[in-house]
Amino acid sequence: MEIEMDKRETKMKQNVILITGASSGIGFETALRLAAQGHKVYGAARRMERMEPLQAHGIVPISMDVTDEASIVSGVQQVLDAEGRIDVLVNNAGYGYLGAIENVTLAEARRQLEVNLFGLARLTQLVLPGMRKQHFGRIINISSIAGKGVIPFGGWYNVSKFSVEAFSDALRMEVRPFGIDVSIIEPSGIKTAWGIIAADNLEATSRGSAYEEPGLKMAAMLRRTYTSNLLSLPVSIAKAIDKAVNARRPRVRYRAGFGASMFIALHAILPARWWDRLGSKVAK
Ligand SMILES: NC(=O)c1ccc[n+]([C@@H]2O[C@H](COP(=O)([O-])OP(=O)(O)OC[C@H]3O[C@@H](n4cnc5c(N)ncnc54)[C@H](OP(=O)(O)O)[C@@H]3O)[C@@H](O)[C@H]2O)c1
Question: Is residue 157 annotated as a catalytic residue, yes or no?
Answer without folding.
Answer: yes
